[in-house]
Amino acid sequence: MSYAINAPVPWPVPPDWSNGVRERLGWLTDVIQAKNGRRQKRELRLSPRRAFDFEVIADEQLRRVLDALLMDHGGKYFMLPIWHDVQLLDAPLAAGQSFVPCRTAGFEFVQNGYALLWLAINQWQLVGIVDIEDDGLQLGTLTSRQWPLGTRIYPVRRARLVDQPNEAGWTDSSGKRSVSMIIDEPCDWPGELPTTLYRGYPVLEQRTDVGEDLPTIFNRQLDLVDVETGPVSVFDYPQRPFRGGSVRWLAHGREENAALRSLLYGLRGRMGTVWLPTWNSDLQLVAPISAVATTITVQWAGYTVFGRMQAGWRDIRIELYDGTRFFRRINSAAQAGETEQLGLDGALGIAVAVGDVRAISFMVLSALESDTVELQHETDADGLTIVTASFVGERHDV
Prior knowledge:
- The chain has three helices and 27 strands.
- The radius of gyration is 27 Å and the shape is elongated.
- It has 398 residues and is mostly beta strands.
């Protein structure tokens, strides 16, 4: 441990994980929406702003150190450990070493950045990283002491307090603080959108978790003219709804966490556009489909009367129990008693029995409703992360 004037100061007080650690990624998109629902977008940030909210339970020595730290350094920058990227030394590390053996894939170590070796509130070392290898970190400085098995290793980022944290004092030697910090440096990560394309846009294939109720809505862009002396005039310029839907993704383990972060970086807030399935059984197949058929027979669902191949409600995803997926556009509809005959823009190429179909869902070309996405880290990234996000339909004539 060494505090020095003008040297980077780490935040050495770990969070209380009982409520997890909340991370916010904030992009900035300039959006101009026309009366007909079309949007013009402009991306204003190359990488998102990033913030962390967490709670600290401090008692005895931990509280005294935290008070001193906030009193002296509360208005300055800290080197904030990325809490969910923690790992432990699996063998003792001797003093005078310039290489730290550890995992690096899926972690946020940055070349020419820093890492924190942490054993206790008064036993830590901030080390500079000059190179990142598959099996560890090459340091620009030597380790100052021997670090035992189980020492924590964190990537760190330059951050500052959003607000000075208030303490809820429990006793004369213990209390709890809610801490909110914003990272003040670029946080790059490889962005990746789904590789499956339909009509030139990626199809979001990461199925949502249904453990909680998720809202959906058919948004309308209505203009009302009310002179308060007669009927209200209603103008629906787009002449179509923009379906809004929420998703809840659970990422288990380092690989899934990294993939989820890459997806969010690929979406870039409101900038990216993807096909979002409803994940519902929107249409119920009632007759087999031959390999060359371009029509399907479904239970009457009012599509011929109300759907009518309208934009935003004409593209479907047919999923089979064996994992096979088909993406097609409905180009005709006709009622046939208790069923409807829906014409597709192409045959499936294989015979499909009624019992083979898991779900037929509509797909809506959509973008994130907000530039800000929250990740709830219930544990470190080797465990569970939860992301809940809302999407809204986009107007693209594809």
